[in-house]
Amino acid sequence: MFSSLSTGIYAGISAAGALGLLAGGCAYAAMWPSSQLFGRTLIAPRRPTELALTFDDGPNPAWTPQLLDILAMHHVRATFFLVGRYAQTERELVQRMVDAGHLIGNHSWSHPNLAITSAAKVGDELRQTSETLEQITGQPVRFFRPPFGGRRPLVLQTARLLGLTPVTWNAMTTDWSEPSSEKIAQRLLHKIDRVTAGGYAANIVLHDGGHLAQSANRGSSVAAANALLQRFKGSYRFVALDEWNQ
Length: 246
What we know:
Elements: H1 2-31, E1 50-58, H2 64-74, E2 79-82, H3 84-89, H4 91-99, E3 103-106, H5 119-137, E4 143-144, H6 153-161, E5 165-166, E6 171-172, H7 181-197, E7 202-207, H8 219-232, E8 237-239
Parallel strand pairs: 1-2, 1-7, 1-8, 2-3, 4-5, 6-7
């Protein structure tokens, strides 16, 4: 009797443990930027002397123009992953990005977590954004970054059917909630040093907008971007993501 009871208890514990591991594995596959379990994403090639500055959640009419001025001053191309509904209201700003030579990417229409979004809405979010950006710029959209990094096989498959290369990252900090540009820059410096020391380029994420408010204050993020440009210009080559996907 004791033996049977013990066996049942241990079996229950094992089953619960297995479910926990499965849940943890799914969460890792869906949200961790380096995970490739649900499908391949572009992160960074083995080019440790290259850095890609990427900016999410814009366009932001208050801060994106200042960021564009800084990039122009340093003669650097960047990649902007735009929220479709914001791009629709800031068409001239989107065109300014393209005219300056920057790469435009799809960051969904309304910034949901696509790992838990219905299949129909996933398709609508990506398709509407690409169509809007292409109408504004007259150019095809080729890159897509899932909001929050959230993805599952259907999300990546939908992106590829629309001609989009899914992109994650290997260098990001909480710039959206950190008021100190010095802290943002310092944390990114550590991450960049780590990935380049490991033999990879750095795919850096900063935010020029905010998914909860289009005109979110991104002064610290813009200042941190300028600090990175000043720190690394001359010792690293800054690239847009299309140079890694040819």
